[in-house]
Design goal:
With about 375 residues, the protein is of the alpha/beta class. About 40% of the residues lie in helices and about 15% in strands. The strands form 3 sheets. The protein has a 7-stranded mixed sheet with strand order 2-12-10-9-13-4-3, sandwiched between helices. A 4-stranded parallel sheet has the order 7-6-5-8, with helices on both faces.
Length: about 375
């Protein structure tokens, strides 16, 4: 699936050559939004305008999509998990596999595993969640509180994924993983489809704010690339009209998508420690990669200090954002500052009237971290 490419270190910024905004793909299924709208507790998450950030970044308007409370959980992951679990259980029932409870198995840096565990409990199923090193103890406890069996793995995220896949080979078990590899792609694709609801909400909320043509840029945090795949699908499936720049943001310690874009092929990087636990992934999802290569304008990597500063600034402006969610602001700041800022603005097509949307993918409760942990 990939090569080892942990050295030399990937650069902090990469802009794709060519006209990526003309790349096109099929849209997400329309019934996903209807499914979510019918769930108990569903409501669109806020899209908050922050004029002070627009002034700082010298663009027209900045909006933050606040995923700090999505279907009762502190991150966007419930959208993908709910749709994928629904599709998985419906398929099992259609195949006559309804006897007994299924065990939904997954690996997670925190948020996805908790969402799968929540859906399993709500639907009368069992959950077994594998957690790699580096995930905050409170995040692990939150998964266990959803009545899931939790296995803590001494290795990294890729190690946890491998062990989860092995565990899912048992009877009455099914892997519900948000990364794909050759031979395991259908359920990850359902998870990506689930995230399309977030993008549909943004369209409606921007229109209500007078931005009828959509954003000029979307900044999206990236782990294995599933959310970014959904964002690319949403904005690159339109046959015509305005196409925004799409910017991916990763931790310096786990910039697998950036490195893959630099090399022009999906690679695995050796990951390090980062407070952005949900983005600490070493290998792009196999189904995400063609979309990231085809539809992303640029990729940037940021450090923990950049994310922490962004989270603090968002908190002061009334948006509760964890390290992963705040990465979207940290990444855009990195792109639009420094000696090459003018060149980067040009690459992203940004001017003084541009509209940017930052995806704050988690709240502070998703992966809590204190000074004592550092």
């Amino acid at each position: 699936m990939s090569d080892n490419a942990s050295s030399p270190h990937a650069p902090r910024w990469f802009a794709q050559p060519g006209a990526v905004r003309t790349w096109r793909c099929a849209p997400a299924p329309r019934q996903v939004r209807d499914f979510h709208a019918a769930l108990t507790g569903y409501s669109p998450t806020p899209l908050t305008e922050l004029p002070s950030l627009a002034a700082e970044l010298r663009i027209g308007r900045v909006f933050v999509k606040d995923e700090s409370c999505r279907l009762g959980l502190p991150a966007f992951k419930a959208l993908g998990a709910s749709w994928a679990v629904h599709r998985t259980l419906a398929e099992r029932a259609a195949n006559g596999e309804r006897r007994g409870r299924a065990t939904l198995v997954t690996a997670t840096d925190g948020n996805h595993g908790r969402a799968v565990a929540r859906m399993a409990h709500l639907l009368g199923q069992k959950a077994h969640v594998f957690v790699p090193r580096g995930v905050h103890r409170q995040a692990v406890a939150a998964i266990a509180a959803e009545r899931a069996e939790v296995t803590e793995v001494p290795g990294n995220y890729d190690d946890a994924v491998r062990l989860a896949a092995e565990a899912a080979a048992g009877p009455d078990a099914v892997l519900v993983q948000d990364t794909a590899w050759p031979g395991y792609e259908r359920i990850p694709r359902w998870i990506v489809e689930g995230y399309s609801t977030l993008c549909a909400e943004i369209d409606e909320q921007l229109a209500a704010a007078g931005v009828t043509e959509g954003p000029d840029l979307v900044s999206v945090p990236v782990g294995v690339g599933s959310l970014a795949q959904a964002v690319v699908t949403h904005y690159r499936s339109r046959p015509s009209g305005h196409a925004p720049a799409l910017l991916s943001v990763e931790p310096d310690a786990a910039a697998c998508v950036l490195r893959s874009l630099v090399l022009g092929r999906p690679v695995t990087v050796e990951t390090g420690e980062t407070t952005m636990a949900g983005l600490n992934c070493g290998t792009p999802s196999s189904i995400a990669w063609p979309y990231l290569r085809g539809g992303l304008d640029a990729a940037v990597a940021v450090g923990d200090a950049d994310s922490a500063r962004a989270a603090g600034d968002l908190a002061a402006l009334g948006v509760a954002s964890g390290p992963c969610g705040a990465a979207s602001l940290a990444g855009l700041r990195a792109a639009l500052s420094g000696p090459d800022a003018g060149e980067r603005r040009t690459a992203l097509g940004l001017g003084p009237s541009s509209v940017a949307v930052l995806l704050s993918t988690e709240g502070t409760a998703a992966n809590p971290r204190t000074a004592a942990d550092d």
